[in-house]
Amino acid sequence: MAGEPGTEKITINIGPVDLGRIDLLVQEGFFTTRTDFIRTAVRNQLATSERAIEQTVARRTLVLGTQHFSRRDLEALRDAGEQVHIRVLGLATVAEDVPAELATATIASVEVLGAFRASRAVKAALGARIV
């Protein structure tokens, strides 16, 4: 369902014949909705590609899953004179109470394959650092 917590909405274009085939499977009860079909197809393809994904995650030193940065986390980095490179396959979040100045002082780069959630001010301040 669109808007479910933990999900992201995407838009895809599908040819009319493929869409008709999906609708047929839905009408025949193989899937409850078009969305159910598409999610199942995506999961099946990801399962087929699991080994390649794992190897790439390891090679690119990505965090797999979720990574959250609180104001306290970033203040500790600032106080230590350090910066972080956010590299995530999944979901990376920066707490809403993090000011843009703190983010620019502590976040060197952001590479997220999935979703990156932060306030508009933080995203704007990090602009060129987001890959």
Automatic annotation (TrEMBL):
Matching SUPFAM superfamilies, A to Z? Ribbon-helix-helix
Tell me which Gene Ontology terms the entry assigns under biological process. regulation of DNA-templated transcription
- What InterPro entries has UniProt attached to this entry? RHH_8 (IPR041088), Ribbon_hlx_hlx (IPR010985)
Q: Which CDD domains match?
A: RHH_NikR_HicB-like
According to UniProt, the name of this protein is Arc/MetJ-type ribon-helix-helix transcriptional regulator
The species this protein belongs to is: Actinomycetospora succinea
